[in-house]
Amino acid sequence: MDFATKTIHAGQPSEPHTGAVVPPIFQTTTYQQEGPGEHRGFDYTRTNNPTRERLEGVLAELEGGTQAAVFGSGLAAEHAVLLAYLKPGDEIIVPGDVYGGTFRMLHKVFEPLGCVIRQVDFADPNQITDALSPATKLVWLESPTNPRLLVYDIAEISRRAHAGGALVVVDNTFATPFFQRPFELGADLIVHSVTKYLAGHSDLVQGAVIGRDHEVFAPVKFLQNALGGIPSPFDCWLTLRGLRTLELRMLRHAENAIAVAEALSLHPRVRKVYFPGLTDHPGHEIARTQMTGFGGMVSFELDGTLKEASELVSSLRYFALGESLGGVRSLVCLPCKMTHASIPAETRHALGLSDTLIRLSPGCESAKDRVKDLTSGLDRLGAKSEIAEAAVAGS
Ligand code: PLP
């Protein structure tokens, strides 16, 4: 089956009793048993639910894995993986550019428990080799990253990590399996904030872990039930519905991202555009080989002040100012005040996350309207004032 066919058909036959083409939501807590302990594979919805099971089957198919476990949020999914593989004294290697919530969980939850977080530059895989030790259990990365859209060589990183005996976890939220298939590049586990492109409509929060090897995946599946961070059957049903248009949406998101990135590159108030599809992006060549498209996200640095960046993101008509991304409606975010505010300012600046970095999630509206919205907003800021210039120079 091709990708689009899988999103609609994989594990989703019509309902056998009525012929309903959309399988119903199994909105139930428990299941009547034939005799004590005799049931048809379902005994309690925290442990298993037919709607959730169907979604897990589709996600595993789309990523080319064998099993999946869905959770009540992307962070709950990440938590299960970290808890499954890290105990006090164990080490994890991550790049500087990770989602702020992942950074917070590592430093505020796992570090105090005695786990060691090694942060290196994944653009230079030698740094990963140097950081590996017998205590390294996981090498964790996003690609493209949030919010600077850096691209890392997943195949090379996986080779290095495996040589040191560590497992590789790839957060595939930004690329989605439509544009990137981490298992084919060597990943052992894939995590997703399903909240974003997979569900696609900004109407639920959900996460997933996908595995390809039963032994590697089993501890995560165990924790799904043992920790209990599951999503509701209704949210699973909504994700199944969203997934049916994943290919269509991703094609549109990507087309719109290119239009937005090109327009921003030409604007005098834009200092830098981060989009892997631009030939001057440092990860462009890797993206061309490991992805089948450049994704739908675009970030840029305003040539101005934090005040101007705040004004701009608050003044747009079609980009709603809000956290999150990947929905059909365009969103804009100022990471330093929003998604990445939990990272201390000095750390953020050292990682190259400036205070005027703006992250865009172009939705599925017309590209023309969005480009006009953005360029008009930038035009309204006017030419860069000397006062602003002095403020930047002094900052
Ligand atoms: N991973 C990435 C790349 C994200 O952008 C996010 C959220 O923004 C998460 C994980 C966490 O997902 P959730 O918000 O569904 O918990």
Question: Can you describe this structure?
Answer:
The chain is an alpha/beta fold and 395 residues long. The chain has 2 domains: 3-243, Aspartate Aminotransferase, domain 2 (3-Layer(aba) Sandwich); 246-394, Aspartate Aminotransferase, domain 1. It is built from 15 helices and 12 strands. The chain has a 7-stranded mixed beta sheet with strand order 1-7-6-5-4-2-3, sandwiched between helices. Helix 2 runs parallel beside helix 9, helix 3 (74-85) packs across helix 4 (100-110) and helix 3 crosses helix 8 (214-227). The protein is globular. The relative contact order is 0.13. Bound molecules: pyridoxal-5'-phosphate (PLP). Pyridoxal-5'-phosphate binds at residues 73-75, 99, 101, 142, 146, 171, 173, 193, 195, 205, 207. Pyridoxal-5'-phosphate binds next to helix 3.
Give the topology.
Elements: H1 3-9, H2 50-63, E1 67-71, H3 74-85, E2 91-95, H4 100-110, E3 116-120, H5 125-131, E4 136-142, H6 154-163, E5 167-171, H7 176-179, E6 189-193, E7 207-211, H8 214-227, H9 233-243, H10 246-265, E8 270-274, H11 284-290, E9 298-302, H12 306-315, E10 320-321, E11 331-333, H13 345-350, E12 357-361, H14 367-381, H15 386-394
Parallel strand pairs: 2-3, 2-4, 4-5, 5-6, 10-11
Antiparallel strand pairs: 1-7, 6-7, 8-9, 9-12, 11-12
The structure holds pyridoxal-5'-phosphate (PLP).
The site of pyridoxal-5'-phosphate has 13 residues, from α3.
